[in-house]
Predict the structure.
Amino acid sequence: MNIIENQPALLVLDVQKGFDDPYWGKRNNLEAENNILTLLTEWRKRNWTVIYSQHLSLEPQSPLHYKNPEGTEFKDSIKPLSGEVIMQKNVNSAFIGTQLETYLKTNQIKTVVITGLSTQHCVSTTTRMSGNLGFTNYLVSDATAAFEITDQNGTYYTPEDIHQTELATLHKEFATIVKTSDVIKQLK
C-alpha cells in the first residue's frame, strides 16, 4: 500500500449540515469530521488536490434539498478553501452530472483518498464508480459515517452494521480500506 506515491486527490463527499438533521436517524462514527479535518490539513500543507462534492437533492423532503441553503451548506470545520474544487450533484455518485472524471484525468490524478457522508450513500456509490473508471481508491473508514436503516422487511440495522457491511463490500473489489492513522503515517 503506497497511498502517497502519486499525490492522490482527497475527496470530501457531502459533508453538509443537512446530515445533522434527525431525518437520517442514528449515526455511527461521530469522529468522522475530525478525521476528515486531519486529512484536509495534511493535504493543504502539501498543496495537494482537494475535491468536494455537494449534494443538492431534488427530493423536496430531503434536508439536502437544493432549495434548503442551510442543509446544503458545508459543515463549518470542513468548508472548502478558495481554489479547492466543488462538484455539485443531484444523485449519490460524485461522478454523475459533474466534471469529476474529466477533472481527475485532465490533472493526471490516478489515485483518490475518499472520505465523507454517508457510507451507504455517496461514499459507496462514488467509490464503486471510481473503481469502475479505473482509479485507485483508498477509502478512509474512520473518516466516513453511516446511518441506521430499516429494510423492506422491517428488519433494523444499526449504523455500525451498515458502515461495516458497506466497507466489507467495497474492500479489495473497489478500494483499499484504510484508517486516518494509516494515511498520516505514510505522509510523515
About this structure: The mean pLDDT is 96.
